[in-house]
Amino acid sequence: MKKAVRLTALAGAAALALAACGEAPTESTGDGSAAASDFKPCIVSDAGGFDDKSFNQLSFEGADAAAQELDTELVDVQSASENDFKGNVESLVAESCDAIVTVGFALSATTIESATANPDIDYIIIDDAADADFDGQADADNIKPLLYDTAQGAFLAGYLAAGYSEAGKVGTFGGMDFPTVTIFMDGFKQGIDYYNETKGENVELVGWDGEKGSFTGGFAADPAAKQTAQNVLDQGVDVILPVGGPIYQSAIDAIEDSGEDVALIGVDADFYESDPTTQDIVLTSILKGMDVSTKEAVLSSGNDEFDPTPYVGTLENGGVDIAPLHNFEDKVDPALWTEVQDLKESIIAGDVEVESYLAQ
Questions:
Q1: CA atoms within 13 A of residue 76's CA, in its CB half-sphere
Q2: Helices (DSSP H) in 234-289: which residue ranges?
Q3: Same domain, yes or no, for 186 and 331?
Q4: For the chain, is the Cβ count within 10 Å smaller at the N or the C terminus?
């Protein structure tokens, strides 16, 4: 594979202790490429950390799976805040990383800067187009954006939530008012609206009107997140969708304090699987296949087949989806769940349109 002979200029110092990487070089495969163990994949988290039970964790799992398949080790570094981004990415350059995965739109500017300065390194950015000049393409030729049209999965979750709700009110709130957050809320609203239109109902959405809504101001499970969740719950919702990694934990705390029977909808990962403490409360989750797409992108780099063409996950290609009902299977009308599955096929077929900034 490529990478074994790179002599890239290195800079920066590690902010955190990094995992040891790679084994001794092995023999050539005979096709002119170096051995897999010479390839060094690396990843830097957003502020949520790799144990967020959400997008950071999924991305890490995908990159780690690729490293194992390539018979090497993954170097990882976690960010405690946005102040760590630049230094962490520089530390990975200094580690002689061949591919660097940056998790989250907040790392976009840092990724573009580093990729421009290090054209021999493959960069994979999750949840951002790396297009600061808005010309429709990544700002460096060595960046591959991994994007997810989660509005499609959220549309299904909105329809399900509207049909499940006995209060006739469902809620949502987000971490910050960014497109990668509001795309969930937009799809959720469209699904509720579609349910109301087709069923002649009037289920209300609290926390997002399509232009403005409830946000915590960050992505930490902190008092602000809990208060934001409580404000939504106080309006009588019986289903809630928190969008923003760990903030769902604050929503659970608020639900427990309220003593009300409120169902939670997860984002990114299947919360039932990623966080077993949610199993009695999570109705479903809006899935982003970040583990699969990250693994494939890292494997492509390791196999000298890196393609910077942006990837957009959809219902059709399996990049987004809705999770099974799990413990709520007996609580949801089977006819409603069948309608959700039929709706999924209608979206894939193009018979039902879901609007988003990623819609193709």
A1: 18
A2: 247-258, 271-274
A3: yes
A4: C
Residues 256 and 204 reside in one and the same domain: yes
Shared-domain flag, residues 222 and 142: no
Please give the Cα distance from 138 to 234 (Å, whole number): 43
| Domain carrying residue 72 | 36-148+291-313
Rounded CA gap, 340 and 241, in Å? 17
Span 253-307, pLDDT tens digits = 999 999 999 999 999 999 999 999 999 999 999 999 999 999 999 999 999 999 9
Q: Which helix (H) or strand (E) holds 148?
A: strand 143-148
CA-derived radius of gyration, the chain: 21
Contact between 72 and 22 (Cβ < 8 Å): yes
68 shares its domain with 109: yes
Q: In the numeric block, which tokens belong to residue 313? A: 């996950």
| Collapsed DSSP state (helix, strand, coil) of residue 206 | strand
Answer yes or no: is 357 within a domain.
no
Structure pTM?
0.85
**Is the Cα torsion angle 64, 357, 190, 252 positive or negative in sign?**
positive
